[in-house]
Amino acid sequence: MKSIRGLSAVWPAVAPVLAVHGGAGHIVAGQLHATRVAAANHGLHQSLLAGMAVLRDGGSAVDAVVAAVVVLEDDEQFNAGKGAVLTVDGGVEHDAAVADGATRRAGAVACVSGIRNPVRAARVVMDRTPHVLLSGAAVVELARSEGLALAPGRWFVTPRRQEQLARLQRGCRAESEMTGGTVGAVALDVEGHLAAATSTGGSAGQFAGRIGDAPLIGAGTWADDRSCAVSATGDGEAFILSAFAHEVDALVRIAALDLGTACHQALRVVGARTGTGGCIAVGPDGTVTMPFTSAGMFRGWIDAAGDPRVGMFAEDLCQ
Ligand code: GLY
């Protein structure tokens, strides 16, 4: 337990609550530029406000997590949407998922390029197709037919990510660089329904065609009103092999662990596969937990009082 850092808190049932993350990664206190931290915290803040505006208007948890993730996809600070990490050949490939705890349905897209907000495409898969996971170029045509915003591949590529890839290809990693940055959101709405969404560019320098945990329902994303909504971030392969998000669900729903303990235990399974990372999770009683085993995790939460709290390291967000 001592290597796991984070926060647990409890709000009254059906008071809406939202948590977001901007990724866990190999970041060292004092070595990530203060301006970068401030910019990321600002993005998390904006995301929380966007999602809570939906919840406060009586909107659904699904609408709230999509709204929160769209803000983070549009923010170049994070590894999602514009500004996502590059594949080994310099391309951008997005994965995203959304899960609805009320219906226990989910939708996801994998390895897509050219959709401005991949989480919206995941929502289309859930709401408008009989499928759960779609991949590749056909998703762009589906997105176009549904009126989603598209952009050419080069629009997503930023100089910061080009420099990151060049450094990786030279075999060096800048101490000040954060390698993760996947984004996600979990929410409880006023009807007592849960939802989760996750979006990512994957892992810097990954093989073209690699798919991570984010769009795999039960690995990086999960929601079930009976147990929890979960969005994960970290070393995707270890989260996939641990069936991480479903492990959290099973520990709550079947083993009757509290949500915080379940997340810690599931992160230990990831750790046994030498993976690090973290997650955000919310339960039907409004419990929020945001544990991580990496050096830090950009994260934040907001309740109906509307005061966003954001931070990166363990000492941030202490109550
Ligand atoms: N956790 C994000 C990824 O590995 O793709």
How does this structure look, described?
Helices cover 30% and strands 23% of the residues. It is of the alpha+beta class. The chain has a domain at 5-81 and 175-311: (Glycosyl)asparaginase (Glutamine Phosphoribosylpyrophosphate, subunit 1, domain 1, 4-Layer Sandwich). The chain has an 8-stranded mixed β-sheet. The chain has a 5-stranded antiparallel β-sheet with strand order 1-11-10-9-8. The mean pLDDT is 92. The site of glycine has 11 residues, from strand 9. Glycine binds next to strand 9.
Strand content: 15-25%
CATH evolutionary superfamily of the domain at 5-81 and 175-311: (Glycosyl)asparaginase
- Rounded mean pLDDT score: 92
Q: What is the fold-level CATH name, i.e. the topology of the domain at 5-81 and 175-311? A: Glutamine Phosphoribosylpyrophosphate, subunit 1, domain 1
Count of helical segments?
A: 8
Which small molecules are bound? glycine
Task: Strand order, main sheet: write it out.
Answer: 5-4-3-7-6-2-12-13
Following the backbone from N to C, one meets helices and strands in this order, namely EEHHEEHEHHEEEEHHHEEEE
CATH architecture of the domain at 5-81 and 175-311: 4-Layer Sandwich
